[in-house]
Amino acid sequence: MKNYFLFFLIIFLHISCQKEKPSPPNIIFIMTDDHSYQTLSAYDDRLITTPNLDRLANEGAIFKNSFVSNSICAPSRAVMLTGKHSHINGHIDNTLTFNGAQPTFPKYLQSAGYQTALIGKWHLKSLPTGFDHYEVLRGQGDYYNTPFITGKDTVPSTGYVTDVITDKSMNWLDQRDTSRPFCLLVHHKATHRVWMPPLKYLDSLENHDFTYPETLFDNYFGREAAAAQKMSIDKDMDLVYDLKMLDEAGEIQTKYREMYEQGRIKNLNAEERKIWDAHFRPIIEEFKKAKLEGADLVKWKYQRYMRDYIRCLMSVDDNVGRLLDYLDEQNLTENTLVVYTSDQGFYMGEHGWFDKRFMYEESMRTPLLMRYPPLVQPGSEITELVQNIDYAPTFLDLAGVQIPEDMQGLSLVPLLAGENKLPGRNALYYHYYEYPNEHMVKRHYGIRTDRYKLIHFYYDIDDWEFYDLQEDPQELHNLIDEPPYQRMIDSLKTELEKLKMYYKDDSDVVETDK
Ligand code: SGN
Ligand code: CA
Question: What is the pLDDT of residues 436-470, one digit of tens each?
């Protein structure tokens, strides 16, 4: 009798435990390319309104202090996949080929029974590993009618890339095995250079003037590396390639005219090209007549850049909305973690720039939104310092998979659950390597606390910069030689050395000795 009682008790406990164990969440990881937090209205509504991205923030959490560890595309993606800094996963710059044999979060999820898929930009050169299904762009891909590489083939596509990636993502969701959890990476090309908008938004905001950033005409005083870059709207933004001033008479001759004429716009079909040309022709004529110079020309270039960038973004926002609506319709909203981020931030004219790479705020920061109704209070604002090394451990933690010891990031689950401290995180480490190369941003590494930033530019330069972000959020005053700050700088140098040891990074020494 006693044995029977025990037997039933065990069965009962087993069944009730099973009932209580939540099913692992699905994961949708949406990433855009070069989307600045300055143009996501949940962060900053001065330039544009992004209602669908704001919906995600309002229904979940917005990370107000979200950063990358190396502000450039392929390295950022490698960091996210592995949960390890660039010097550990080996993918320090865009020129390399990713070692796909190493462990990544999709592989760990696969082992735990997840179906995994990747649609969109990949950019890591080796073919994706850890995915049951993938359809990825070749390299950077194109905005119009761009081919996709699948497991077997390269297949053409028709339409605007942001719509196509979203369609393909929903198709995969339609066909998935509904008995198992899924992890889907939706990785957009937009809003990458050369900012080719969808036809339906070509005329939007044509008469709108965007507010100029205060630092559009920065003189880089006291910042040697900042002065040496080649990513300025004034000198490096190409009138034809970037701003589409392809005049029929061929009078606007620029360095990259041919790359635009024979490359970027070649993907448009005849119908699309007609609409494209009809939009730009009068703008080109007006521009030629105006004969702008100096500051006026810079301001004009800024407005054109912003219009096309924002138009690309409007389509991103629409497509995020489509995906969120799809989850509602399919009853998937409740048990799906939806993440929105970008591979890094971007300059919207601050310091006179486009592009990224620097450890300064606009490019070290990146948007990060997460919605997961069972855990995250709607409208949560998280202010702790988080970084893209944290994504992989967070996904594994939520999926109930043990976080491997060698992952360097931290799970953000405690913050999502409402804790306001992330134990083990006092400062962030950053290291950028891609020099000498396009845009000529010098190699540098550094530390960022919640108030201060210390950067060391090295390789063919040996220059330190120190900023008090509270007093100087625009990072215009390098205080490295200012006497009142010397104790603080010494202590940050010590902290930086500790971080380098903690993350096992001596790659600056190796590179300098080369
Ligand atoms: C391309 C762009 C650069 C950009 C890099 C890296 N030039 O080379 O402006 O910095 O990508 O961007 S382009 O002429 O090809 O547009 S990243 O986001 O992929 O790292
Ligand atoms: Ca990018």
Answer: 999 999 999 999 999 999 999 999 999 999 999 99
- Token couple for 411: 């799970």
Distance CA 139, CA 117 (A): 18
What is the distance in A from the centroid of ligand 2 to the CA of 22? 36
| pLDDT greater at residue 53 or residue 22 | 53
Nearest to 91 by CA among 405, 509, 512, 507: 507
**Which of 144, 126, 254 has the alpha carbon at shortest distance from 195?**
144
Is 457 in a helix, a strand, or coil? strand
CA 361 to chain CA mean position, Å? 14
Write the pLDDT tens digit of every residue in 247-284: 999 999 999 999 999 999 999 999 999 999 999 999 99
| CA 359 to centroid of ligand 2, rounded, Å | 14
* Residue recorded with tokens 């002065």: 227
Q: Is 188 in the pocket of ligand 1 (CB under 6 A)?
A: no
**How many Cα atoms occupy the beta-carbon half-sphere of 423 within 13 Å?**
3
Ligand 1 site-directed mutation target among 265, 267, 438, 441, most atoms within 8 Å of CB? 438
- Give exposure, 14-32, as e/b (b: 16+ Cβ within 10 Å): eeeeeeeeeebbbbbbbbb
Provide the whole-model pTM: 0.95
**395, 421, 447 — which closes off a domain?**
421
* Ligand that lies nearest to the alpha carbon of residue 343, given by its number in the listed order: 2
Mark which of 393, 421, 449 sits at the end of a domain: 421
What are the beta bridge partners of residue 341?
31, 368
Q: Tell which atom from ligand 1 comes closest to the C-alpha of 33.
A: 18
Model confidence over 82-105: pLDDT tens digits? Answer: 999 999 999 999 999 999 999 999
Could you list the beta-strand ranges (E) of 326-427: 336-342, 368-371, 380-382, 386-387
Q: Do 324 and 342 fall within a single domain?
A: yes
Same structural domain, 322 and 177: yes
264 lines ligand 1 (CB under 6 A): no
The amino acid occupying position 468 is D
Tell me the one-letter amino acid at 511. Answer: E
Two tokens, residue 167:
């369609």
Each residue of 336-359: pLDDT tens digit? 999 999 999 999 999 999 999 999
- CA-derived radius of gyration, the chain: 24
For ligand 1, is residue 94 a contact (CB within 6 Å)? yes
The verdict on 286 and 352 lying in the same domain is: no
Q: Average the pLDDT over 227-250 and give the result.
A: 98
